[in-house]
Amino acid sequence: MAFELTKEKQELVKEVITHYPDPRSAILPAMHIVMDERGWVGDDGCQHVAELLEVPIIYVYEALSFYTYFPKHPVGKYHIQVCHNIACNLRGSEELIEHLVNKHGIIENALTDDGLFYFNRVECLGACGNAPVMQVNDEYYEDLTLEEVDKLIEGFKKSSGNGKNN
Ligand code: FES
Question: Which of 1, 96, 127, 131 could, after both became Cys, cross-link 87 (CB 3.0–4.6 A)?
Fold first, then answer.
C-alpha cells in the first residue's frame, strides 16, 4: 500500500510550500515531515512528496540519494549511526562498532529482530573534537566509552519495555 502522510501533515506540507517561490525548495522540509511521521522516507515517501509538491519525482529522488540523513528503509525505533572517520577511528570507533555487534547483537546495516535498532557507519558527524561520536536518531553521544554505550543500549531497551528488568 502506498505511503501517505496524515491529512494534518499533508496540510503542513502545503503550508510549507507557500514559504518558497519554487515548490522544489520545499523538498527537504517535506522529507523532514515524512521522517517525523514514520522515521524513514523510501521510494513511496518520495512518490508522496512529489505528488504533494507537484514536482517530477526525480527531484525528490535526487535529494534522497544525496542526503544520507534520510533513510531509504525502516531503521527501527533507534537509528544508531557511528562515525568511522579518522578522528573517531583513532579514538576507538572500530572497537565501539565491534562492541555493538558482539555484545549487543546489533549487526551493521540490519534491523534487529525486535525492530528496536538499526546501525550503520557514517562519515564525519562534525564533532571530531569529542570523538568517538555516535548519533542515535537526532541525538549526539560524544567521547563515548564502551561502558557508556552499554548504558545507552540498556536504557533504550528499558524505555521500550525490552529491558532485562521489565
Ligand atoms: S571524525 Fe568522527 S565526528 Fe568527525
Answer: 131
Atom of ligand 1 nearest to the CA of 127: 3
The answer to whether residue 64 scores a pLDDT higher than 60 is yes
Phi-psi region of 31 (alpha: psi -120 to 50; beta: other; left: phi over 0): alpha
Distance 90 CA to ligand 1 centre (A): 10
Ligand 1 center to 92 CA (angstroms): 11
110-129 pLDDT per residue, tens:
999 999 999 999 999 999 99
Report CA 85 to chain centroid distance, whole Å. 18
Listed in sequence order, the residues at least 6 apart from 94 whose beta carbon sits closer than 8 Å to its beta carbon are 84
pTM of the model: 0.85
Do 51 and 96 fall into the same domain?
A: no
Give the domain CATH number at 11.
Answer: 1.10.10
**Average pLDDT of the segment spanning 119-147:** 96
What pLDDT sits at residue 117?
Answer: 97
Give me the number of domains the chain comprises: 2
